[in-house]
Amino acid sequence: MIETERERLASDRRLIFENVANGVAIETIMAAFRRSRLEVQKDVEFVANKIREYRFRRLAIGSAHARHMVPCGTYAEIRANRHSLLETLRKLGPEALSSPLVISRIETQRIDSDEAIEEVAHRVSNA
Q: How far is CA 9 from CA 18, 77, 82, 99, 115, in A?
């Protein structure tokens, strides 16, 4: 079966992200995919954003199967949260991994104190 360019791009992005999540050295990934460090970083960021977007959209529509947002902005966060991230990645098909983001920026923030909770509640109520 002949892969289209989009399928190949999606497959490479998936494999690169999986390798980063599983702790493979960036240099090894660069060599295997014949990509620069910057290209690997861009692919990892793209997939992380697609995962965020998928989870956010499921939460926004009130899906019974929605999962909480998971930090994945750094390689360390990706490795620390790899089980959740890879679970979501399995749900993303080639079309999702080769098409532009629908929501360009989604951020997660850790709320770990009473003051932070009050601040967030104030911002949300005034939005």
A: 14, 24, 21, 10, 44
Of 46, 49, 44, whose CA–CA distance to 29 is shortest? 44
Please state the domain extents for the chain: 5-125
Name the token pair of 85: 């991230």
Q: What is the pLDDT of residue 1?
A: 45
Question: In the structure encoding, which two tokens stand for residue 123, read together?
Answer: 């911002």
C-alpha closest to that of 9 among 31, 38, 42: 42
Q: Cα separation of 19 and 81, whole Å?
A: 13
pLDDT tens column, 52-92: 999 988 888 888 777 788 889 999 999 999 999 999 999 99
Question: Rounded to two decimals, what is the model's pTM?
Answer: 0.81
